[in-house]
């Protein structure tokens, strides 16, 4: 059994990517400390945009940000826009985010039963070959040449 949910992956220049699991009904994004997702980038507004749950996914709304929000290169104009898996979001001038679906596997998948000991039997049937360490072999060859 598995469940699906969405993540927002935020990338700011010169910083490691941050991953946010989107579980709330409303998720605020911006530079201010009051936001659920804080994007510490100069061109991102204090209250930049908002993600709102709609059905199983989310819509994004720009909150009147100074430098705007773009979805896949297109400016977000006043109206909420439904996010689709893989959408690229530009917050301001340089902060990027990706909206991705994640599948969480909760239980082992049902599959054909394996005979107990089958892997061990296969290993026993494989002819053994001596393993040669290439570094040790090169050192031994060099030592022979010096002697």
Features:
single chain, 147 residues, mainly beta, five-stranded mixed beta sheet
Characterize the structure shown.
Helices cover 14% and strands 38% of the residues. It is mainly β. Strands 2-1-11-10-7-8 form a six-stranded antiparallel beta sheet, with no helix packed on it. The longest helix has 13 residues.
Order of SSEs: EEEEEEEEEEEHH
| Helix and strand composition category | mainly beta
Strand content: 35-45%
- Helix percentage range: 10-25%
Radius of gyration: 26 Å
A few lines on this structure:
This protein has 147 residues and is mostly beta strands. It has helices at residues 118-125, 134-146, and strands spanning 2-11, 18-22, 26-30, 37-38, 49-54, 57-62, 69-71, 74-75, 81-82, 88-91, 95-105.
């Amino acid at each position: 059994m598995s469940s699906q949910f969405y993540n927002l992956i935020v990338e700011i220049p010169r910083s490691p990517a941050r991953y946010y699991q989107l579980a709330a009904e409303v998720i605020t994004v911006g530079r201010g400390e009051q936001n659920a997702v804080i994007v510490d980038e100069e061109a991102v507004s204090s209250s930049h945009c908002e993600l709102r749950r709609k059905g199983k996914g989310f819509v994004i709304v720009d909150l009147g940000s100074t430098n705007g929000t773009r979805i896949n290169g297109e400016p977000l104009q006043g109206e909420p826009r439904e996010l689709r898996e893989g959408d690229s979001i530009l917050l301001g001038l340089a902060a990027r985010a990706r909206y991705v679906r994640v599948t969480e596997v909760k239980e082992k998948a049902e599959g054909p039963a394996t005979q107990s000991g089958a892997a061990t039997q296969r290993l026993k049937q494989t002819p053994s070959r001596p393993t040669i360490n290439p570094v040790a072999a090169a050192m031994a060859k060099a030592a022979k040449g010096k002697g």
